[in-house]
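Notes to self after the Tuesday call (sharing in case useful).
The group wants a holo model before anyone commits to mutagenesis around the pocket. I volunteered. Ligand is pyridoxal-5'-phosphate. Logging inputs and output together so the record is complete.
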Amino acid sequence: MKLLGNMNLKNSELYIGDTSCSELAKKFDTPLFIIDEDDFREKIKSYKNSFKSKKIDSRVLYASKSMLNVYTAKIIAEEGLYIDVVSGGELYTVLKAKFPSERIYFHGNNKLYKELKFALDNNIGTIVIDNVQEIERIINILSGTDNKQKVLLRVNPGIDAHTHEYIKTTKLDSKFGESIFDENIFNIVNSIVENENLIFAGFHCHIGSQIFEKESFFKEAETMVEFMKTVEDKLDIKIPELNLGGGFGVYYTKEDNPFELGKFLNEYIEKIENYIDYYGVNLQTVDIEPGRSLICNSGSTLYTVGGVKETFGGKDYIFVDGGMTDNPRPALYQAKYEAILVNKANKKADNVYTIAGKCCESGDILIKDYKLPKAEIGDLLLIPSTGAYTYSMSSNYNRIERPAMVFVSREGEKLAVRRQTYEDLIREDVY
Ligand SMILES: Cc1ncc(COP(=O)(O)O)c(C=O)c1O
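Result:
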């Protein structure tokens, strides 16, 4: 298994920085989400420093859907990033962290009336409009007031990045955004421009997730800048902002080959500057909104082995005390992971195991056919790269409690989310 961030081995045990994983298990129990906070903050800084231009403003938004709780939002605020939310619940969490409202972007293809009202009442910086009906909904709330809301329009530039079908979002029949190839797009933009309660700031697009081809992002940026030029000329307006979304691929297993992020971001911003000059647009601010590539590799999940089963069919299982409830990605889209037995980190890995969760579902398999040292009940198993789309997609299936989340850094440990209790599980039940 590849050691990521501040992971290191001491006396054949796995540590994150100076923190022993076995000690974390003793202190906080398992399953446990562990975030390498120093690594996370370093990534944020590297994003900010690398996606920088002398000619235009650049913004990095953290896509909070990838992993969010109040402590995470506080880190993002402290480090000076912007943030995007896609629901009233995410917005509520971010506001509870006292995140500056002008730095919040609100996404979503079906923002409810109450969510929009909540966002507008809290003066959030930018609403990213997904479709025509949403324009009506916002105008409905704002009409008759003097309020002016900055908005972007999400569009679909038809870039077909090579990624998993379920996380590909910009095919022409995608549920997100309005197509740039539809002639009606000019009428839609015009209806925003002409409304006195709306400030049309520009466009947003996002071409998918876990993308490894730089060219897809360059193509996206060029297509969008060219499109902006057409809109500026046709409607005789200046468009100041372009948000190019996230989607930068990360390492999960040896099959993944992510580009070096700092270098890529330098190259990306340079290309964008060139497109601006070449097409002669009035763009002043360019945004990106990574989620996975900011948090994924800083997060791991620690489990206790509760059983090792040799089946009659020849497959050997390791049973862990979590599974698809804390990480639905393998069951949902066959996501792959690596693993390590933290208390046997130096031992030879010559046993092939399938790592299964505890849910009553045969698809509750976290990793198939993976080589590990001989496992026994009580061993601790860590799966790295679980920072993104695990905790945020977790469930209480089988009424299993959600794990705790602890952030570890040079300064020590910080419990950010406490473990759910049985009492939490019946909290909403009316009886
Ligand atoms: C609109 C939008 N922006 C940003 C992201 C973040 O993508 P990633 O986590 O792959 O960087 C997503 C993810 O689906 C998205 O839908």
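Two things stood out.
The two ends are 48 Å apart (CA to CA).
Residues 63, 66, 107, 169, 206, 209, 245-248, 289-293, 388 surround pyridoxal-5'-phosphate (CB under 6 Å).
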